[in-house]
Design goal:
- There is one protein chain.
- By secondary structure, this protein is of the alpha/beta class.
- It is built from twelve helices and 16 strands.
- The strands form five sheets. The chain has an eight-stranded mixed beta sheet, sandwiched between helices. A two-stranded antiparallel ribbon has the order 1-4. A two-stranded antiparallel sheet has the order 2-3.
- Helix 2 links the parallel strand 6 and strand 7.
- Helix 1 (48-62) packs parallel to helix 2 and helix 1 packs across helix 12 (340-355).
- The chain starts with a strand and ends with a helix.
- It binds beta-D-ribofuranose and calcium ion.
């Protein structure tokens, strides 16, 4: 028999009670058998910080903590052909090239992207240094179809992590109503609550790219886990972190890649003055993995999250009610505090295990 343990933490901060329900975990059984790896479907738009998150996930899989069920890609930071290729290349680099990668559902790709931050290829212009994907985009299945297939096969078993625009998730819900409720948990990086945005004064990039999709996801179940800008912008990966990984195994190709990508991302982040003068870059998307595997680094609050889809100046803004009314209509857990030092420390140690030879 396995036990599902929900961890609760309480703290009092500036008069506000915050409740964390981070990281419900399958523990070992009474016979002492090891916990089953958490099964993860990772939806992403790589993207420099997506690549770091995907490398971390591979380390967790290598250690037996996670099982990567599939990776689904979406247009976002860069165009869809790049996000697909980047996911394939990152998986091959980490030793998980056999994992299925889905292609983005069709979207209008004429709008704004984030190539100015992540490089024209979305990978700091380093993608050419990695081998081409074994399977071309034209042969890949659609991401929404993969999400539907995997979640319906084992209801309540798979954790869906989404670190790009929520377009694929909403498309899956549209095609198969109720499908997102079949995930064990839905954990997203996105939104900005008590602070401004990073793509407009009000909106965070992932939500801004497709607010209607985000609204659909937030009405799909009542326990969406949200890692918003307020905490992700506190998690800055610095040169010391990057060097810590590469120096552990100097001959490692992954270690060198991490340093090279870090250099590009730190440079663009500095030019946009987004890191409070600290030379480094925000590993936004990696915080989803911290929530699942190192929940002691985060504090979450129960909330009713809504997405602004109409505002002339506020489209893509996420809002919650900060007042102390009964949370009858709550649909989410929103992370409001992070222990960034410890989060980065565990990430670096896990990276070292990824770069270490078998
Ligand atoms: C989010 O936007 C993207 O640029 C990043 O990859 C991250 O998912 C941060 O707002
Ligand atoms: Ca992303």
């Amino acid at each position: 028999m396995r036990y599902r343990i929900a961890r609760y933490a309480l703290t009092l901060t500036m008069g506000i009670v915050l409740v964390s329900q981070a990281g419900a975990t399958d523990m070992s059984d009474t016979a002492g058998n090891r916990a089953r790896p958490r099964r993860i479907l990772f939806d992403t738009d790589p993207g420099g910080d997506d690549v770091f998150a995907l490398l971390w996930l591979q380390s967790l899989a290598k250690q037996g903590h996670a099982e990567i069920v599939a990776v689904t890609t979406v247009a976002g930071n860069v165009r869809s052909q790049h996000t697909f290729a980047n996911a394939c290349k990152t998986l091959a680099l980490g030793g998980f090239g056999h994992i299925e990668v889905g292609r983005s559902v069709p979207v209008d790709e004429g709008g704004e992207d984030a190539a100015h931050i992540h490089g024209n290829d979305g990978m700091g212009n380093l993608s050419r240094t990695l081998p081409d994907p074994k399977h071309p985009l034209s042969e890949a299945r659609r991401s929404d179809d993969i999400i539907i297939e995997k979640l319906s096969a084992v209801p309540g078993e798979i954790t869906l992590i989404a670190v790009g625009p929520l377009t694929n998730l909403a498309a899956a819900e549209e095609k198969s109503p109720g499908i997102l409720a079949k995930a064990k948990e839905v954990v997203i990086m996105g939104g900005a609550f008590r602070q401004g945005g990073n793509i407009t004064p009000c909106a965070e990039f992932n939500i801004y790219c497709d607010p209607e999709a985000a609204q659909k996801v937030f009405t799909s179940r009542d326990d969406i886990v949200v890692l918003p800008l307020g905490i992700t912008e506190k998690v800055t990966f610095t040169k010391e972190h990057a060097n810590g990984v590469s120096q552990a195994v100097p001959e490692s190709r992954i270690g060198r890649f991490i340093v090279d990508l870090w250099q590009f991302m730190a440079k663009t982040s500095m030019s946009y003055r987004s890191t409070d003068g600290i030379r480094g870059f925000h590993v936004h998307d990696a915080t989803t993995l911290a929530y699942l595997f190192y929940p002691e680094t985060l504090l979450l609050r129960r909330a009713e999250v809504r997405v602004e889809t109409k505002g002339e100046w506020t489209r893509g803004q996420t809002v919650f009610d900060d007042r102390h009314g009964a949370k009858i209509e709550a649909n989410a857990w929103v992370a409001l505090q992070v222990d960034a030092g410890n989060l980065l420390a565990v990430m670096v140690e896990d990276f070292k295990l990824l770069v270490a030879p078998e």
